[in-house]
Amino acid sequence: MSTSEIDASVQAELNRLRESIDNIDAAVVHMLAERFKATQQVGRLKADHRLPPADPARETRQIARLRHLAQSANLDPAFAEKLLTFIIAEVIRHHERIADETENVGTQDAGARDGGAENDRVAGDRAGEERATDG
Questions:
Q1: 46 near 53, Cβ under 8 Å?
Q2: CA separation for the pair 104, 17 (Å, rounded)
């Protein structure tokens, strides 16, 4: 049966339901974006304090918590666990990237400091040479 053969009232109800689904999808995307903003902050804090990107104990607690919430919302707990496991894997990937970037910046900063000290020493040596040749 094609959409042109569907009764107008059925099509109107189908459109109404689909609009509701589209709104919910948009809300889910925005909520995930907010969640990832918060987890990025956690990742920066962990990197700054050299904490590991993953926290298996927390992940286990969160999965159990989400399974319970899913069950009370009449959502398949296994589905909720798969979704959270996917999200957690993405968060850990972000945390690892942030840790790598923080480590690289720290290495570059240390190199700049060491290079700066070396440049200062060389400049001082040259100034000393110039003073020696002036007199």
A1: yes
A2: 50
Give, for all 135 residues of the chain, the pLDDT tens digit: 676 688 999 999 999 999 999 999 999 999 999 999 999 999 999 999 999 999 999 999 999 999 999 999 999 999 999 999 999 999 999 999 999 999 888 777 665 555 554 444 444 444 444 444 344
Judge contact between 62 and 54, C-beta under 8 A.
Answer: no
Q: Per-residue b/e over 61-92, b at no fewer than 16 CB within 10 Å?
A: ebbeebbeebeeeeeebeebbeebeebbeebb
**Neighbour tally for 96: CB within 10 Å:** 15
- How far apart are the C-alpha atoms of 38 and 48, rounded to whole Å? 16
How far apart (Å, rounded) are the C-alpha atoms in residues 99 and 50? 8
- Cα(63)–Cα(81) distance, integer angstroms: 6
